[in-house]
Structures are given as C-alpha cells and as structure tokens.
Write a structure and sequence with these properties.
The complex is a heterodimer of chains A (about 325) and B (about 290). With about 325 residues, chain A is mainly α. Chain A has one domain. Chain A is built from 14 helices and no strands. In chain A, helix 7 runs antiparallel to helix 10 and helix 8 crosses helix 10. Chain B is mainly alpha-helical and about 290 residues long. Chain B is globular. The chains are: A mainly alpha (about 325), B mainly alpha (about 290). At the A-B interface, helix 4, helix 5, helix 11 and helix 13 of A face helix 4, helix 9 and helix 11 of B. Chain A: It is found in: Cell membrane. Chain A: GO terms for molecular function: branched-chain amino acid transmembrane transporter activity. Chain A: It comes from Rhizobium subbaraonis. Chain A: InterPro entries: ABC_transp_permease, LivM-like.
Chain lengths: ~325, ~290
C-alpha cells in the first residue's frame, strides 16, 4: 500500500494520534503562563476561533468535496443567534452558546436541501447566495439586529466567582482552547469513523459509493450538519468575547481569509487548516505595521502559495516527510 | 398604467445591467470551465478608470472605448497571472475560486489606496430627463436600455459569425480537438477574459452614472450575475441574457409590490425552487457544466 493515503482514515494508529493531539493541546494550554500580556492572548484566542471555523470547513470542503461557500454564514448565524437569544430572550449565555450551535446546524440542514442534486460550481453559487440572503435578512430586521449598525453590548460569558474582564483574557483563552479541542476531537473521530470513510468515498467516486449502498442524501446532510455545530458555537463565543456583532462576518474578505486557511493548510487533514489558521493569524499581526497594505500583501501571499504549492502547507509537510522516510530506508 | 410602465422601465434597466455582467461570467465559464470571482471588481475598476479619464477632461465618447480597451488588458493580465498557471490541476475550479477572490481583494484594496474611500460619480451618458407616457425617466437609463441590446447583439454576431468567435466557441466545446486543429488555446483563454472584463467595465460605467461609486460597488452586481447564470444555465450565452431580463423584471415587480427588503429573499426562494426542479438552468441543456 504505497498509494497516497493522506485522506484515508485509520493510517496513523489511534494511540499515536491521541498522544500527539493531547501533547499539542497541553503545550497550548501552558502558553498563557509564558504569554502574559492580554493583547498576545487576544491574538491566540482569535487564532483558536479561526481554527475552529476553518477546520470545520475542511470537513465539508475537503472530506465531503461539497463547495459550501455559505460556511461563514453558519458562523454568522452563530454570532447573531447568541446575540439575539441573550439580549431578547434573556437565555443563559452558556445555554445560548450551545443553542447557537444547534441553530447553525439546522441552518446547514436547510441549505443542504437545495444542493442535494447539484454538483461543483452550482453548489458554490447556491451557498454563496444563501450567505448573502442571511445577511440581507439580518440587515432588514434592523429593529432586532441593529441592521448595518450591528449589535452592541452583547452579554458576555460568566464564571462563578471569577471576573472575566480583569484577568488579562485568561479565562477566555481556556474557553476558546476548550472549544477548539472539543471541535478537533469531534472532527477527527468523525473522519476516522465509517461515516467519515463513506463521506470520502462519495467524494472520490460517487457512482461506485452509491452503488455500494451509501446514501448520498443522508451523508451530505450529515457532512454539512456536522460541520455546522462547532462553527456556530465558535460564532457564539466570538459574539460573547467581542461583545458586539456586525454583518462584516458575512463579508467576502473574512470568507477569503478563512478559505485560504483551509486551502493553505491543505484540505482533508483537519490539522492542516488548524495549523494554517495559527500561521495566518500571527502573520497578519506581524504585518500590522503595513496598515492598509496588509490585505494586499495577504492576497498576494495567498496567490503565490496557491500557484507554487497546490496542496498547501500540508503538501510541503508531506513531501518533506516522504523524503525523510526515503532517506531513512536508504 | 403608471405602475406597469415603471415596472417595464425598471425591469429593462436592471435586466440590461445584469445581462452585461452575466454574459462575461458565462463566457469565461463555457470557455475555460472556471468561475471568475473577480468579475465584480473588474466592473468597479472599469468605473474608476473611466472616472479618472473623465477627470482629465477627456470627452466621454473617447473615455468609453478607452476604458474598455484598458480593462480588456487588465482581464488578460488577470487570466495570465491567476488562472493560466493552474490549468490542468485536478482541483482547478476550487483553486481558481480562491485565486480570483484573492485577486479581487487585491484590486479592491488597491483602488482604495489609489482613489480613496470618498464616493465618486461618473458623468451620465446623456444628460437630462424625459417623460414617456407620463412617467419620468432619465436619459441615462434610456441610453443603457438601448445600448445594451446592441452590444449583446454584436457579441452574438462575433461568437457566431466570425472565425475568432467560432474558435472561442470551439474551445468551449472541445479543448483537445481545438488544439489538434491548431487553435491557440491559451490566447483564446486570454481573449475570453479580456472580453468579459471589457463588458464588466461597461456595466461599471453604466452604474457609475446613476449611483455613487465605491470600491465595493461590484459585490452586489456579482451576486446578481451569479443568480442570473444559475437561473439561465451556464452552457450558453443566450440563456443568461434571457435570464437577466427575466430577473430584472422579477426584481422590478417584487420591489414595487413587496418592497426592496423582501426582494432578495423572494429571488432566492425562486432560485432554490428552480434548482430543485431543473438544476441545469431554465434555458440550459444537460452538459458537463453540471459537473
């Protein structure tokens, strides 16, 4: 079996992968003791949020092969669902965060219905339209959502006996990290399961997979719904953390950045998207001095990497690993 | 009577703009099989180039062709830099989406740097207003309604009656066979992008004459053009043109009776319904376009 098994579940043993993931997250969990200023912690928190959104997108885009361009709308729905639930309905913030994930999941199922019979570019068009529609609806209901002004003073999360505002973002850091951890474990368990294998089978050879009894409709709904839950939770956390919401989350610029995280990281890996989220978020911070030139430089970087390394950072990693293995085998 | 006339004018006017945008998207899709997400910023850049030329007090009848020529060059450049190197890759559709999106972000921020965020307006094609059967319309809108069919007709003649146009359609139908009979496929790819960008620029000039320009002015027309090509089917040029006018009228009727806010929602509902019944588009035949 010398074929490329990168996208195949079950290549690295369970134990090794679990050990690596736990080690990596343990290292991340220690960073607040080294990184003590609240601004650097803020950057890391944003990187965690983006990593959740990007890695969940990798599930539908990379594994499922479903070009869901409404993924950021699922994030935006999480943002606004949390804002509306805590502000208007007075629901407990923690409960609202979980419910936001559920709302995003339902939205994903709704958007799956029109794309069940579609392929490729048509899915891009419909999901893109869906994202725009959600934004239009939010803008039009300005009595509740604040319209173009956005929502302000959204209720934040709370911990009994702990002041979340004056701890230098210490607590927020761990909540964000916990969401990323839960999301990553969920995604990896899913893609390594039989369900994950059938999703990949549908992507790679739809006719054969269907003829072997895999239901395209059911698997596609599962793929989209599974990619939505933690995306919505991340949106809710983002709203609670930023304490405001605006329709900017539906904009093309954020979608482009997150999509480039998925593609730069290399699709169908989950870890690639997470790694690229860290790299790009920190890179954007390093570039802060360039001001208005930052988006221009980021765009150029994306184009250059896509032209030179078609399979992204994971491709560089894979080829480096392959050459190392070759040398070791002599 | 007033209502019917207003809807008629609104529909023809919006339909003209949508058609001008959608034709370029469809041309690129049929020829190269990729989707150009920079199409909206091509429109925006066209309007800004025209604004700059008019600011140097160049008369409008020179500004129009000059802008279209410049933008044709930009379209060619776009194709050469972010599309051509990727041809032959297995995941080209997805990668081109991200490279054209990145290019769009590049151009958008570049325009913001060069011309600043302040809104600008282009001179109208023809000044003044007129009354038709008691309904007031601007001459600018009438000019757009009249010019667009001429341009689209010229495009149709070009694609169906000239050797170059036939070559372009040959590439769209069968790339390998086109290579075998000696067509310069790469040059034709560039030509498709050049024509699309020139038409988008014209749409930008139309729009800049009645609405304020901003670096993000292309986003909404791009979305509408996407809806139009899904609606009309991507396999031909005439499908999107009919669909453009159809959607123009649909929008005019909806915004007259239900208000501006509900129009996008209704449009999307109709789109979903259409895709569930006839996914290849209203005028489309079943082709590779679906894959």
């Amino acid at each position: 079996m010398k074929a490329d098994l990168r996208a195949t579940p079950g290549r690295v043993s369970w134990k090794n992968e679990a050990a690596l993931v736990v080690t990596a997250f343990a290292v991340l969990a220690l960073t607040p003791f080294i990184v003590t200023d609240s601004y650097s912690r803020h950057i890391l928190i944003m990187a965690f949020i983006y990593a959740v959104v990007a890695s969940n997108w990798d599930l539908s885009l990379g594994y499922g092969g479903v070009f869901n361009f409404g993924h950021l709308a699922l994030f935006g729905i999480g943002v606004y669902a949390y804002g509306l639930m805590t502000k208007l309905a007075g629901i407990d913030p923690w409960l609202a965060m979980a419910l936001s994930g559920a709302v995003s999941t339902i939205a994903a199922i709704v958007v799956t219905i029109p794309i069940l019979r579609l392929k490729g570019i048509y899915i891009i068009l419909v999901t893109f339209g869906f994202a725009q529609l959600v934004m239009q609806l939010i803008l039009s209901q300005s009595d509740y959502t604040g319209g173009t002004q956005g929502m302000v003073r959204i209720q934040t999360l709370y911990l009994a006996g702990h002041n979340m505002i004056r701890d230098g973002k210490f607590a927020y850091f761990y909540i964000a990290l916990a969401i990323l951890f839960a999301s990553t474990v969920f995604l990896r368990l899913l893609v390594r399961s039989k369900t994950g294998a059938s999703i990949v089978a549908l992507r790679d050879n739809e006719e054969y997979a269907v003829s072997r009894g895999i239901s395209l409709v059911r698997q596609r709904v599962i793929t989209l719904a599974a990619s939505a839950f933690f995306t919505g939770v991340a949106g809710a956390f983002y709203a609670a953390y930023q304490r405001n919401a605006s329709v900017d989350v539906f904009g093309m610029s954020l979608a482009t950045i997150i999509l480039s995280m998925v593609l730069l990281g290399g699709t169908s890996t989950i870890y690639g998207a997470i790694g690229a989220s860290f790299v790009l978020t920190i890179f954007a911070e390093v570039m802060a001095d360039f001001g208005a030139w930052r988006p221009i430089i980021t765009a150029l970087l994306i184009i250059v990497v896509m032209l030179v390394y078609p399979s992204g950072l994971a491709g560089i990693w894979a080829s480096a690993r392959a050459s190392w293995l070759r040398r070791r085998e002599g | 009577m007033d209502a019917a006339l207003q809807i008629l004018f609104g529909g023809l006017f919006q339909g003209s703009l949508f058609a001008m945008m959608a034709v370029g998207l469809a041309l690129i899709w049929t020829t190269i099989g990729v989707f150009n997400f920079s199409h909206g910023v091509m429109m925006m850049l066209g309007a800004y180039v025209a604004w700059q030329l008019s600011a140097w007090s160049i008369p409008l009848f020179i500004v129009l062709p000059a802008t279209m020529l410049i933008m044709a060059g930009v379209g060619w450049l776009l194709q050469a830099s972010v599309v051509r190197p990727l041809i032959g890759r297995p995941n080209i559709v997805l990668v081109v989406v991200i490279t054209t999106l990145a290019a769009a972000s590049l151009v958008e921020n570049g325009v913001l740097e060069i011309w600043g965020p302040r809104s600008k307006q282009l001179p109208t094609l023809i000044e003044g207003n007129t009354q038709i059967l008691g309904v007031g319309v601007s001459m600018h809108q009438i000019a757009i309604i009249l010019i667009t069919p001429v341009i689209l007709g010229a495009l149709w003649l070009f694609l169906n009656r000239t050797r170059l146009g036939l070559a372009l359609r040959a590439v769209a139908q069968n790339e390998d066979a086109s290579l075998l009979v000696g067509l310069n496929v790469t040059a034709l790819y560039g030509l498709a992008f050049a024509i699309a960008a020139a038409l988008a620029a014209l749409a930008g000039i139309f729009m800049g004459g009645y609405r304020f320009m901003s670096p993000v002015m292309g986003a909404d027309p791009l979305l509408k053009a996407l809806i139009v090509v899904v609606f009309g089917g991507l396999s031909s040029i005439s499908g999107p043109i009919f669909a453009a006018y159809l959607i123009g009228f649909f929008e005019a009727i909806c915004s007259y009776y239900f208000g501006l806010y509900w129009t996008p929602a209704l449009l999307f509902a109709v789109l979903i319904l259409m895709l569930m019944i006839k996914p290849e588009g209203l005028f489309g035949a079943k082709t590779r376009g679906l894959a």
